[in-house]
Write the structure tokens for this entry.
Amino acid sequence: MEQFVLKAEPRTELGSRAAKRLREGGRVPLNLYGHGEGNSFLVLDRVELTRFLNAGHKIATIRTDSKDEPGVVKEVQYDPLGSTVIHVDFTRIRIDERIQVAVAVETVGVPKGVTAGGVIAFPMKDVLVSGLPLDIPERITVNIESLEIGHAIRLKDLKVPAGCAFVAGPEAVILTVVHHKVEVAAAPAEAAPTQPEVIGRKEGEEEEPEAPAEGEGKKKEKEKEKEKEKGKDKDKEK
Amino acid sequence: MPLMPKRVKHRKQQRGRAKGNATRGNLVVFGDFGLQTLDRGWISAQQIEAGRVSASHFLHGEGRIYVRIFPDKPISAQAAETRMGKGKGEPEYYAAVVRPGKILYEIAGVPEDIARSALNRVCHKLPVRCRFVERHHKV
């Protein structure tokens, strides 16, 4: 994996209000921890970090004024719209110590099965790879041109990067070409229930006395109005 | 048949308020591209289905569409030409409550330009402003 250098500065102020001020200034709080050392509270440029993350990098050297520390991305927090990075965690690593990193699987070509009317199902877009930080690749490429409908690429079919090993079992399905599901015409409306079943209520049981039907309600109102008019007429006669 | 729950605890619900932003279901996880709402509101079962149909027609069976929302809120209404009062109306339809940031649909297995066109068509069927988003790299 390519060594990427992120320039960071130590944070002097901690807490949510200070972090908010940093974010408003186009910077992102970063925590670096692990390997028995204390937490380092740092801050780095958002544009640089976003470029790093969008390129799919995971391992970087965090460079501060005092020292360089290699780390791997542990967690990334986004804003509610999922577009802006608001916080990032790195864990310290050693160059001579094996780590596990999710590596993206990249496909090459269009499968034969797809040209024959199939659809690609790609359930495992990232593969967990264990190895030394410098040996772990940025991505794993696989050629899928010969794949026909019903065939699958399994973990054992991928080329294992030198000095690395896959964490999942060899039979794990990475990608498969399946038949395209034809949409079935909707069932006639009579067969489909129009209302969901109410939990804990027996069939035929009413929730509450329903409001009178439209026609009945009008009749009753008219009757009441007639009675009132009759009452008024009687009073006048008296 | 429109999308609706199979079983419910209560037939009718109060209107409620959809405050804040979506904190769950706000990242693309199944497909490669997604459609994200920027508004809050109710999306009816009919609108959800209309969006799905428009995307699947555009894709001609290519790729795969994931619908990330489900209409589980019953919306009641008074019948036409009735006077007000006489109790709460009957459930008219079911709707999904969405807050800004919620991913509504996802598409996998097609190039970006095709996914963008398909989701643009979906967007026109919905009562909320939407935007096209991509999947983030897994950490």
Observations:
- The longest helix of chain B spans residues 45-59.
- The two ends of chain B are 40 Å apart (CA to CA).
- The beta strands of chain B are 7-8, 33-37, 41-44, 64-67, 73-77, 90-98, 103-108, 130-134.
